[in-house]
Amino acid sequence: MAFDLLDEHWVPVVGEDRNPEEVGLAEAFTRAHELRWVEGEAPVVTAAVYRLLLALAHRVYGPDSGKSWHALWDAPCFPDGPLLEYRSRFFDRFDLFGARPFLQCPGLPREKMGSAAQLVLNRSVGNNATLFDQTTAGDRPELDAAVAARWLVTVHAFDPGGLKTPYRSDKSSERALCNFFGTVVVEGATLKDTLLLNMPVYAPGRGKPNPTRPDDCPQWELDTPPSPEPDKERRPPRGWTDLLTWPSRRILLQESRHNGRSTVNGVVITPGTRLRTELADAELMAAFRQRMTKTKHGLFPAGPKYPVVLEELRGVWRHCRELLLPAPPANPRQRPRVLDHVAEYAPDDEVYSLRVFGQQLDPKGGAVQTWFQETVPAPVALLRVNDTDDRVEQLLGYAVGLADDIGAALQWLERLYDEALAAERAHARRRSTLSQWYWPELPAPFGTVLRDLGVVLQNAQTAGSVSQAALFAPFEWWKETVRRVANAAVRTWAWQLPRESGRQLLALADAESRFQSRLGGLCRDYDIDLDRCRDEDEDNGD
């Protein structure tokens, strides 16, 4: 039985009424102007589906120039003609179970079929029981075809590394590409806006976006499906849509029927194609940074560019400079390149959101530990900040540095207390750390700083110059906010400590006193940094 992904309902979206629903790929475009956003059952599903939609959107709509992009942006909806024409050419490439199954390798041997649970990344298989689920290889669960389609796309993007079922003898596989970076999606008011905001000019014949070649295409457009043999030699991507649909694995689904519905009751997953290009040179939906190396001529970026990743507790907002700011030459950071296009074409006064998705693997890289999804405000005025004026970068650096320094001081406070009571706490159950009451409270107020900064910069475009008082006000407010959050975290932590002896009370009082002294010093240092930035501005003005 056919399961045509163009028409069958499987793409998870949120509608105009903010209720979840599922649509086909074609409907995702024809109704994009009235749908809000993509929302999968896990952050990795959302990210993977967005990347698939973008690959298809580029092949259908381009846009091949800034003029074409503006025409699509100004139109009330995506035009039907390009989608119908594309569908007529590739109508047989979107069947999940056809002779050329979508994003699959029909040459894989069906006798190697394993549990369909392998598709769902947080499910355990074989002896790898995890916290999330206790499925074992002997179970034969069935997945609804729509669910299987979503996880098929997700496995290509996010599958952990390690040993896989071999086609012949090669069991080794690298982590799928999206494990290496936080996937950044610029989100607008509707799905149409979101897709266009993440669609830079796409003209393979002119090498856009770099390094796209004329033969670039997503996997389903290739004349033949991939060989079941893994591509151990590595290859560079043909271009942007090739990378968006990169075949990290060779996969084959086994269809079954349940109550008249198509389901999947088995899957083969083997090693796939390995990338031979530096991600920073090809990936448009990730931010990167380089380490600074000291030379006799000063500090300069050197070595590889490391992608920005998400981590537990400490939010991705700490990488606001890498995520948002344009980078002048010899700067160690590189924002997601889709933002260069947003800065050039988007309306001046808009504030979009960056949704950043990530996955954390275990230390060996072979199992999923957790998923992440975070949001960072992205004022267009901030994306366009004059790259010859380094005050904004300096101020954001000071703000992030203050939060980091106070976070380190909170850890120091805990160590002081533990060391004072080392003897009597040697066998006590380890407490949760102070960090859990500190870091999660900071993303929202830092978002306020970014939005206020965007207003300041937007007003400066109208007035012709930046008001110094207005520019520094968000960062002064930030200092007081971080101090308040830190003190609230200390109070919460202290109330959960035992007060059974005078020694415990004295240890707590001494640790708190020393922390307050360090906190005050950090805030004074921050004020000095702000004043230095003010003085430099006045000197430049003279």
Would you mind describing this structure in some detail?
InterPro entries: CRISPR-assoc_prot_Cse1. Residues 202-240 are annotated as: Disordered. This is CRISPR system Cascade subunit CasA. Pfam families: CRISPR_Cse1 (PF09481). It is a single chain. By secondary structure, the chain is α+β, with helices and mostly antiparallel strands. The chain has a domain at 389-541: Orthogonal Bundle (Topoisomerase I, Chain A, domain 4), CATH 1.10.132.100. Helix content is 39%, strand content 17%. The strands form 6 sheets. Strands 2-1-3 form a 3-stranded antiparallel beta sheet. Strands 4-10-9 form a 3-stranded antiparallel beta sheet, covered by helices on one side. A 3-stranded antiparallel beta sheet has the order 7-15-16. Strand 15 (351-361) and strand 16 (368-379) form a beta hairpin. Helix 12 (391-420) runs parallel beside helix 14, helix 13 (443-463) packs antiparallel against helix 14 and helix 14 (468-495) runs antiparallel to helix 15 (502-541). The longest helix is centred in the C-terminal third of the chain and has 40 residues, at 502-541. The chain is globular. The N and C termini lie far apart (76 Å). Residues 124-137 have low confidence and may be disordered.
